[in-house]
Specification:
Elements lengths: L4 H11 L4 H8 L3 H8 L7 H11 L3 H5 L7
Helix pairs in contact: 2-3
């Protein structure tokens, strides 16, 4: 099963009007790492998934594509 995280992350990031660089800075990761996640070339740790969920105020299930409810 293909992960929905790349498309969901890009969706919530663009809806929030935040660039990959700004998100990377807020989460203390590299800009290229955020780009790699969005291109489905890198996976995320549990800790980063939680940080993304908290930052965008959405559930981790939403980011992973397990639910269509954002919260």
């Amino acid at each position: 099963m293909k992960s929905k995280l790349p498309e969901r992350l890009k969706e919530v990031r663009t809806e929030a009007g935040i660039s990959q660089a700004k998100l990377a800075d807020k989460l203390n990761v590299s800009n290229s790492f955020i780009a790699e996640i969005e291109m489905d070339r890198s996976s995320v740790s549990t800790e980063l998934l939680i940080a993304l969920s908290e930052f965008f105020n959405v559930s981790s299930d939403y980011l992973l594509g397990l639910s269509d409810k954002k919260s």
